[in-house]
């Protein structure tokens, strides 16, 4: 039976709000806000949001299509369908067409092997490296043996890499001019004294913020020694991040408070 992809897409879009809590427009806005450069990173981020791979892949394709459904304007007959199996038809020979044994027929000439068309390989897209625009690059004369770039550091986050990129994008949105630098296991934002430090690991992300006398609660914990800035130093508050749903209005308010207090 042929598959009507247009109908499947319509059912998928109509059920988004009920099944995921967001409609198509809200998902498109969320993906854009995540500021992820690569299609695989978008799919990974959507899977961390709770979507199955097939649904995450479909949302990514719609986003890549400018937020427009893939088959919205295609009639049913124009939607791609599974090719029907070719049936081998038996040819019935008339009696007079059956060759006589005494008159052998010449064997048919073999068909030349079909050659597959050579398709030019499309070069892989270059990997985007997150480079702070406000902070000048470290020159070779000033570089130290332990210096690493931010992209190498983010690789340590493993499955949390999309979340780490999302958090850094939000920090840059509240303080675009802040200097960003990579430490051994953290990204520091602000100079000479950072107002935020994002600790990187494959188990969780820890965002350390300078919030002064802001009260603590179950979400906003007291800063721990180290905090990515040194063994004996600590920023005042800390958030443990494992889910993109934690990046909400309260999170953005805390970022703004820390940036303004140390701006």
Shape: elongated
Structural class of the secondary structure composition?
A: alpha+beta
- What is the domain tally? 2
Termini gap: 64 Å
How many beta-strand elements? 6
Quickly count the helices: 8
What's the alpha carbon Rg, rounded to whole Å?
29 Å
Runs in which pLDDT lies below 50 for 5 or more consecutive residues are 78-93, 115-146
Largest sheet: 6 strands, antiparallel
Percentage beta strand? 5-15%
Estimate percent helicity. 25-40%
Q: What is the overall pLDDT average?
A: 74
Q: What string gives the helices and strands in order?
A: HHHHHHHEEEEEEH
Secondary-structure map:
Elements (H helix, E strand, L loop, with lengths): L4 H10 L1 H5 L3 H11 L4 H10 L4 H12 L85 H5 L6 H14 L5 E3 L3 E4 L6 E4 L5 E5 L11 E2 L14 E5 L7 H13 L2
Antiparallel strand pairs: 1-2, 2-3, 3-4, 4-6, 5-6
Helix pairs in contact: 3-5, 4-5
Overview features:
about 260 residues, 2 domains, 6 strands, single chain, alpha+beta, six-stranded antiparallel sheet
Could you characterize what this model shows?
It contains 8 helices and 6 strands, in the order αααααααββββββα. The protein has helices at 5-14, 16-20, 24-34, 39-48, 53-64, 150-154, 161-174, 249-261; strands spanning 180-182, 186-189, 196-199, 205-209, 221-222, 237-241. It is α+β, with helices and mostly antiparallel strands. Helix 3 crosses helix 5 and helix 4 (39-48) packs across helix 5. Strands 1-2-3-4-6-5 form a 6-stranded antiparallel β-sheet, covered by helices on one side. The protein has 2 domains: 5-78, no CATH class; 150-261. The chain starts with a helix and ends with a helix.
């Amino acid at each position: 039976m042929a598959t009507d992809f247009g109908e499947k897409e319509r059912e998928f879009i109509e059920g988004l709000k009920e099944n995921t809590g967001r409609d198509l427009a809200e998902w498109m806005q969320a993906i854009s806000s995540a500021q992820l450069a690569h299609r695989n990173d978008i799919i990974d981020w959507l899977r961390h949001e709770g979507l199955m791979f097939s649904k995450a892949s479909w949302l990514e394709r719609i986003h890549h299509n400018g937020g427009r459904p893939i088959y919205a304007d295609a009639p049913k007959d124009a939607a791609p369908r599974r090719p029907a199996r070719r049936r081998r038809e038996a040819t019935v020979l008339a009696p007079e067409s059956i060759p006589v044994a005494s008159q052998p027929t010449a064997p048919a000439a073999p068909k030349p092997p079909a050659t597959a068309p050579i398709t030019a390989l499309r070069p892989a897209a270059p990997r985007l490296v997150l480079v702070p625009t406000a902070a000048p690059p470290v020159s070779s004369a000033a570089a130290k043996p332990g210096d690493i770039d931010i992209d190498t550091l983010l690789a340590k986050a493993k499955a949390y890499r999309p979340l780490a990129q999302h958090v850094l994008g939000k920090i840059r949105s509240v303080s675009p001019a802040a200097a960003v630098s990579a430490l051994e296991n953290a990204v520091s934002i602000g100079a000479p004294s950072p107002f935020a430090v994002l600790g990187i690991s494959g188990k969780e992300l820890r965002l350390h913020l300078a919030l002064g006398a802001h009260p603590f609660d179950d979400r906003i914990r007291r800063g721990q020694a180290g905090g990515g800035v040194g063994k004996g130093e600590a920023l005042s508050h800390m958030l443990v991040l494992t889910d993109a749903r934690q990046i909400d209005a309260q999170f953005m308010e805390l970022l703004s408070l820390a940036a303004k207090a140390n701006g």
